[in-house]
Amino acid sequence: MKVDLRLYAILDPERTHGRDLAELARAAAAGGATLLQYRDKYADTRDLVARARAIKAALAGTGVPLLVNDRVDVALAAGADGVHVGQNDMHADDARRLLGPQAIIGITLKKPEHVAELAALPVDYGCIGGVFATASKDNPDPPVGLSGLAHLASSARTTRPGLPVGAIAGIDASNAAAVIGAGADGIAVISAIFMAQDVKAATRNLRGIVDASLARRASGTER
Amino acid sequence: MKVDLRLYAILDPERTHGRDLAELARAAAAGGATLLQYRDKYADTRDLVARARAIKAALAGTGVPLLVNDRVDVALAAGADGVHVGQNDMHADDARRLLGPQAIIGITLKKPEHVAELAALPVDYGCIGGVFATASKDNPDPPVGLSGLAHLASSARTTRPGLPVGAIAGIDASNAAAVIGAGADGIAVISAIFMAQDVKAATRNLRGIVDASLARRASGTER
């Protein structure tokens, strides 16, 4: 499944100022998010399913796919379009078996070993991180920085040519162009979208930066 | 799916003295457990799947089905026989849809409202609790006691005739006979099995008490 990773909006109830998840999802889609992930490490399963369903309904007609972080059961129950799995989440082989060939499955890439495994994994994108320090997640690993990102993205392109590769952690309007310049096909964003007062405007601004940076890269002005 | 609920052994890594889960499962099966549940509120999904697989493999040939607490994704990935869902876990309708008609699905019954909903739920057993106080789980609700158990079990029999009804929380060799006497078709046990030094012997002892109590009830000596 070909995934548009340009602006990957990650909706985590802990980083929303307590606002309605469905409304936030709709605002991000309206602002130009190309993919949305629902990530929730605390809710009970019944609430996870209800929230994922509400977000999926909010995205109806927008063309923006909904992925669920980690939880294949929640994705299946809510009719989401797939899952994002970290290195300690369900193995991509198992997720693919349970979700079927049409589902979108993405994976977190933190280290060269993870990139090396990409060749054999049934995933539709990789997301490199953490690129910068972030307040959104407890992360025991040090950020890879722009040079680490460039190295991992380049390796991923060698291992799995054509696989979209995004970047995550601490990305906002101030550094998004540099992230794309370092080789990412898109940015995954939590706080810079969903902690913004005007989610739609913040999304639109980021999307503009990404599109311009990708165009510059394609025209050879950078890299 | 007809479920034998006489001795339902619940394996929670927090209540095992750190021993190997597969070996504990095998010991419980050898001692006469009729159903086994893997419950784990802390492990990452990847570990949950690996542990559930190991337990399922350990039960091969014993005839003892393996259920996973809450997590339908883990049950599906590990090839478990079903799930046990609490009132905040995935709705039984969703679990049935994802797991199929052959899976075993059980539900926790804490209150008369839960029993009243039984009529419409695609579940194979109910488990009433907490009957007594327990160290195995944070439980905000007060124990229902033997009289509450008797009342809920009787209501469940009216709502869903023939549905096996178990009991959970604080049940051990000292009170198992009273629990069966109050109307439970079986007992769900955590610590009295898996915190025991000799798991097989503890299981066998409990199974003997349950069988004798069920026989007494069937012959009309009690109840």
From TrEMBL, chains A, B:
Biological processes, Gene Ontology terms: thiamine biosynthetic process; thiamine diphosphate biosynthetic process
Residue positions binding 4-amino-2-methyl-5-(diphosphooxymethyl)pyrimidine: 37-41, 69, 108, 137
Protein residues bound to 2-[(2R,5Z)-2-carboxy-4-methylthiazol-5(2H)-ylidene]ethyl phosphate: 134-136, 170, 190-191
EC assignment: 2.5.1.3
Recorded GO MF terms: magnesium ion binding; thiamine-phosphate diphosphorylase activity
CDD domains per UniProt: TMP_TenI
Cofactor: Mg(2+)
Keywords: Magnesium, Metal-binding, Thiamine biosynthesis, Transferase
Family: Belongs to the thiamine-phosphate synthase family.
Protein name (Swiss-Prot/TrEMBL): Thiamine-phosphate synthase
Naturally occurring in which organism (per UniProt): Chelatococcus composti
